Amino acid sequence: MLSIWTCSLIECKNVAGSQRGSVAQLLTPLPRTTDYVGVALTRSVMLDTSRMPSYAFLSPQAVERREETTRKGAYSLLPHEETWRDRQPGLQQRGYLLRQRYHPDWKPSWEGTNVDPDFCEDSVTSLRLEVIDATRPDGAVVAIKSINNLGSHEVEIARFLTSLAHPENHCVPVVDVFPDPLEPGRTLMVMPWLRPFNDPEFVIVGDVIDFVTQMLEGLAFLHAHHVVHRDIAAQNVMMDGSQLYAGGFHPMRRGFSLDVIDELKPLSRADHPVRYYYIDFGLSERFAPGAPSLVVGDVGRDAEVPELSSTIPYDGYKADIHALGNLFHKELELKYHHVEFLRELVMHMKQRDPAARPPASELVTMFRQIRSRQPPTSYRWRLGSKSEPAYERVLNDTVAVAWEGLSQLKRLVR
């Protein structure tokens, strides 16, 4: 398997170990004195087979079949990947290194070996058309997004929100912006590489409470600064997962190590709190202070917001509130046991009449009161999936109680 990529930048003498990819690390800008022209910036492509399991090695017959599928293009770059390959030299000059797969001289690392390509990092494709992962010289993994300049305010709004330092700002920060070296009509925006908010899944009630708290605070912050998101949905809420995976994780195969050899087990959110973020401000609007918050457009991933219209103006703030309430309903209420305390909140957020929905700031206060009524011990209750059979739920709940008791005992001993 490919060994973990390394940054051998002359100016970079150490890679942040446990903080690789954390948002705090990324907010430190790259030095711009050299633009990294002529500086050695490489990822190791030596095939390290020492840690591979025995089933990673193919029989001679399987090797022949693999070679044939490789020749037929099974592992070739997809059209959008070719575009990122063509951007690679310009990105490297800027200090961002793409995975070896996207280098102009890439050749599959498994060629001439008996290794299954599934255990080779450079076999992993990127399925996102306008976003790709990259590594900075300090070892931080970032997302680079290509944005069409025509009619878009995404960069402007994202940079404005990044400029507002506040603990309740849950908008993904922008760490760099520069012209697309390949397409003059586009801009490349660099942000932290995040994970879906529910990967890994929530385990205990406290995980849900923390998530809802952060999302409500983030929405209230957004609205307090006269910005409506307009596309709140599960796909646009993510988290900084670096706290749960001390050694990092592969950006595409999130459940695996950077070299895609080892399957990872995440740490618990209860002991390693995470931070959640709103992303994708491509449909967002920013209003002048005191200006009406009316928007027009049947847009966004959540088509269930009742007032959406391409002709009749509606309140963007109220639409955001309904969309977030719908996310809580679908991703939490319908999926887990022990989240009945959300019903009051979601009911207010999903009122059909937009005027009946409380503003985000009031929802923050409402949920604070709801939290205060929760018994402290309930925060450690196992959620349990509603799709779980009854007998399995009883067994898993029993095991969870036993593990919790053991965990508490360890804390007392310490």
UniProtKB/TrEMBL annotation:
EC number: 2.7.11.1
Domain Protein kinase: 83-414
Keyword Methyltransferase recorded: no
Organism: Lentinus brumalis
First-level EC class: transferase
Protein name as catalogued: non-specific serine/threonine protein kinase
Classification via Pfam families: Pkinase
Keywords: ATP-binding, Kinase, Nucleotide-binding, Serine/threonine-protein kinase, Transferase
Cross-referenced InterPro entries: Kinase-like_dom_sf, NEK_Ser/Thr_kinase, Prot_kinase_dom, Tyr_kinase_AS, Tyr_kinase_cat_dom
PROSITE patterns: PROTEIN_KINASE_DOM, PROTEIN_KINASE_TYR
Catalyzed reactions per annotation: L-seryl-[protein] + ATP = O-phospho-L-seryl-[protein] + ADP + H(+); L-threonyl-[protein] + ATP = O-phospho-L-threonyl-[protein] + ADP + H(+)
One Gene Ontology term of the molecular function aspect: ATP binding
